[in-house]
Amino acid sequence: MVMFLERQSVKSCILRSVGYDDAMKNLEIEFHSGLVYQYSGVPSKVYADLISSSAVGKYFSDKVRNRFRAKQLVV
To answer: Quick one: 12 exposed, middle or buried, by C-beta within 10 A (0-12, 13-18, 19+)?
Structure first.
């Protein structure tokens, strides 16, 4: 059974919501497509910068995607 993190909505063309587990350093991203991915080993500063960014989708593409190990979670 997959446990999802509590996520908060973000204003983005590609991302719907974002959650973070500080103890595990896991970042969970829900896309508008409905897909959910979990990125591991993400520093808390990256999460804080992501959710406070004025361009959340661009920050995600530049600083998270292809930089951290990701796995798709089954919804």
So the answer is: buried
What type of residue sits at position 60? Answer: F
**Cα(25)–Cα(49) distance, integer angstroms:** 14
Question: What is the per-residue pLDDT across 27-59, written as a single tens digit (0 to 9) for each?
Answer: 999 999 999 999 999 999 999 999 999 999 999
Q: Write the secondary structure of the chain as one string of H (helix), E (strand) and C (coil).
A: CCCCCCCEECCCCCEEEEEEECCCCEEEEEECCCCEEEEECCCHHHHHHHHHCCCHHHHHHHHCCCCCEEEEECC
Whether the CB-CB separation of 5 and 30 falls below 8 Å is answered with no
Strand duo 26-31 + 8-9: pairing: unpaired
- What pTM did the predictor assign? 0.91
